[in-house]
Amino acid sequence: MTAVAARENPTAGGRAGAADVDVLIIGGGVNGTGLARDLAKRGASVLLCEKGDLARGASGGSSGMIHGGPRYLLHDVETTRHSCADSGYIQRIAPHIIFRIPFIMPVERGGEFGRLGMLLYDTYFSVYDRFTPLKNGIPHARLSREDMLAIEPGLVGDFLGGIALDEWGIDPGRLCVLNALDAEAHGARVRTYTEVVGILRDAAGVVIGGRLRRTGEETVEEVRAHAVVNCGGPWAAKVAGLAGEGGAGVRLRPGKGVHLVYERRLCNFGIMTQAIDGRQVFMMPYQNETWVGTTDDDYYGDLDDVTATTDEIRYLCEALERIVPGLAGQRLIGARTGVRNTIYGWGVSEDALSRGYAVVDHARAGAPHFYSLAGGKLASFRLQAQEAADTVAHQLGILAACDTHHHALPGGDSLPNELELSRAYGIAPLAARRLIYRHGSLAPKVLDIGRESSTGFATVCASEPTLECEVRYCVRHEHVQRLGDLMARCRLAIGPCQGSDCGLRAAQIFGEERGLDPTSVREALMELLGRRWHTARPVLGGAQLAQAELLMTEYTGLWQAPAMTPLA
Amino acid sequence: MNDLLVIGSGLAGVTAALEAKRRGAHVIMASRSWGATAMSTGALDIAFSPALSPAQQLPRTVAEHIMDIIAHRPRHPYGVLGVERTVAGLRQGMSVIAPALAAQDLALAPLDLEADNRGLPSTLGAVLPAASALASHWDADFYVPQSAPFGIVQFNGSAAFDAPRLAEGVACDAQAASGTLPQLVVLPVPMDGRVPAAVLARSLEDVNVLDELARSLAPQVRGLAGVLLPPVLGLEKHAFVWRRLGEALGVPVIEMLGHIPSVPGLRLALALEAALVAAGIENVGAVSAPIIERDRVVGLATAKGNEVRADAFVLASGRFIAGGVHWTNACREAIFDLPVVTEHGELAADSFESMVRPLPGESHPLLTAGVLVDRELRPMREGRPAYRNLFAAGMVVGGFASRYALCADGVALATGALAAAGALGDVAIGSKP
Fold this sequence. Notes:
- The complex is a heterodimer.
- By secondary structure, chain A is of the alpha+beta class.
- Chain A has helices at residues 3-8, 30-41, 77-93, 117-129, 145-151, 172-185, 236-240, 310-323, 381-396, 418-425, 429-439, 443-450, 468-477, 487-490, 503-514, 518-536, 542-554, 556-560; strands spanning 21-26, 46-49, 98-108, 141-144, 159-170, 189-191, 194-201, 207-214, 220-230, 255-262, 270-274, 280-286, 289-293, 297-298, 332-340, 357-361, 370-375, 459-461, 466-467.
- The model of chain A is unreliable at 1-12 and 561-568 (pLDDT under 50).
- Chain B is of the alpha/beta class.
- Chain B has helices at residues 11-22, 62-72, 77-81, 83-103, 163-178, 197-203, 207-217, 238-249, 263-278, 352-356, 408-425, and strands at 2-7, 27-30, 43-44, 118-121, 127-130, 132-133, 150-156, 184-192, 226-229, 253-255, 282-283, 287-293, 296-302, 307-315, 325-327, 331-333, 340-342, 345-346, 370-371, 380-381, 384-385, 390-392.
- In chain B, the strands form seven sheets. In chain B, strands 1, 2, 11, 12, 13, 14 and 22 form a seven-stranded mixed β-sheet that branches. A four-stranded parallel β-sheet of chain B has the order 8-7-9-10, with helices on both faces.
- The model of chain B has no long low-confidence stretch (mean pLDDT 91).
């Protein structure tokens, strides 16, 4: 069949005509990378293009939980159901990068439901218990006031008791990276810092590919594809718009969400409470930090430049400091900001909007072979990808069924023993544990790089700790284009030092691996520090302000240098 | 009775204390701990005003850099003081600090304001401008063409000091500045470089270890213009270690400027502390809770609960690193609760927003926050000097950050010397027994 024939019968296009790839996926968040993996495993040839780094948008800015969302029970039971179900699958395929986060919800005497509070919440979570087995959660427990305060002595208030429940955290950056790597292992190609700036269509309006431009470059190249899938997250409406009228049907109501990051773990359990407006907010131990979140506000601003505002920071601090007063003196190191890709709805509050997803086939709007995967949640990304892949596979005539829930993501097949690994390579057990957390069964492969040089096992980022061999491994194998991309790979510069300690060394390693000249090494360092600065800037204060002064002073010489001209 | 109490024992505070001592005053020090001076690179940053645009001609001499800073940054302490008093203060500060440090066996290169900044190699892998430095950093200037090659020492397994990478960076900057690409040769030595710099510095104070280093370097240094090392040549016995290695090798030995945590900063802090002891200036430790009578400060409470009184006070408590300025609910000076000013103007005390919202193209106003001073260096509150007998020196003075113009040590020396002079102008020295 020829391309002409395809034009004559656009709905039966299949894999007709010449093309570079079967599917061009736009967006490297969890939807895009999850879809790339799914389609690649079914045998389709896939090219994924992401205009920034993987997980830079809604995925990376998320709460990092694959929870069932008891919050959605009130408005959106279906989302709770499929989030719980898919969370169970995700745990199976990515056992290394998940971690349990038990939560407690203190019930106050003066709360909304008065003395009935305990009973009502107990009943509410009894309903949630019906879904929790799907995500390997244990049923909720009713805690007496004394039990609850024994678990979390930092709680202060007049409590009737509390409810304990069980959720799961995940590293969204690594989740996207691992999906992308697994897609590549099945033949897909992944290109970060490559923006799709146009959609190619033939005379009949059939979508036949995209125009690509590398970030910071002028030249545009064309890629022919049998199908194009828009996984643009909060940018999905903009991406759909590249097909003009044909992109109709993707309408979002972006919601900005802020998480505050404290330098270390300040609680054993996540703690849920209400903010001043009655919204549910939480603090939780997250890896070696504590996060406080989340705001949810309609966002009309620039999707490419999102920062936390003073009001959002104060709103969250106020809510948590009310029942955990000790939080007030703690060291706040950053505000993570993301924009949700929530599907449009009118006349409801942000919280009440559905977290559902939609696979839009743009054939109806006159752009066959163009699809959008809009909305959705991190906790059900695999299911979202499966449904989108089913639609695309149908067009391509691929009969293979989805099997993304049957096979582990890279490193997830078995977990090495941390003490054995620590002995075998002479590294600290903590370093071994964190390495296994990120790389699972691939940890020995990472550590083998350490044997290449005398500094291979040196600690680069002490906050984590991240070893030199892991930095090299990520630079070589995990789509690190810019130094700051390491933050989402190996948590480099994530901790309180914000790169003042590890930045220079990481830049040197990056430069050595890439063969960069000294000026480019310096630019790489500035890129990393700039990204850290973006999240640190809104919450500067206390000890972190001294850290910022230290960092600015330390690298003063370096950022003088680019402005330096010959002393003629 | 004390004529003067100085709060803070960094470069600014010690300059003020020694200057007051020289003038015959009875001086007492209130120092809680080391501050940012202990993180010095080893260079003395007096003035380097980077070109604001590529088209701008870079000033040549240090004095021209000072004038450039004054011209472009009116709220900078140099601008507040004016060029003549800045220069006079710098010279005076240097004239008390240099001999005091030399007496502790820590030599400073002479400060010549009519000369260019030198381009000193640093462990950041960059050439940094400096008007003076500890003597061990001073003998290589990569802003001028170098015809003979330099060696750069690689300690075994040192990740913090990656000689080939650093050599590339230094050569790149040197070429940009001098038009000539210097030759840098890596000199591997078998000594373990995986230990922290301060530990390595301590171990090299052992003559046997030092001589072993000299033996492994000696065959490699022929024909070299100098040998560059990370700044690890001893801590308290630095002068001895540096001299002995230089004599053993027969070529200049140059320590590169350090970055945090830096051995040169520790040396400087130790020597300043010793200089205070040598001058017989007592340290009463941390102070707080000022005692005010009308428009004068009369004393402060020590951590032990005693009162310490003086006729005049110099506040040299540093900025955020040292804790002289802090921000909990608002950004304020920590001891007297003085309001702060930034490079862009005054901060409203309660305006969180004005502090966290940087101006377009600027980094962050908070990083230039410190007390606003009048021409006499008296901290201001509501448009007039907060107290008749309180003067400020060093980083606690607002309106500048070394991020924009390498000047922190120059500000410390100039304001330290002038604050002491101003404070004693208000006191009849030795009027009390």
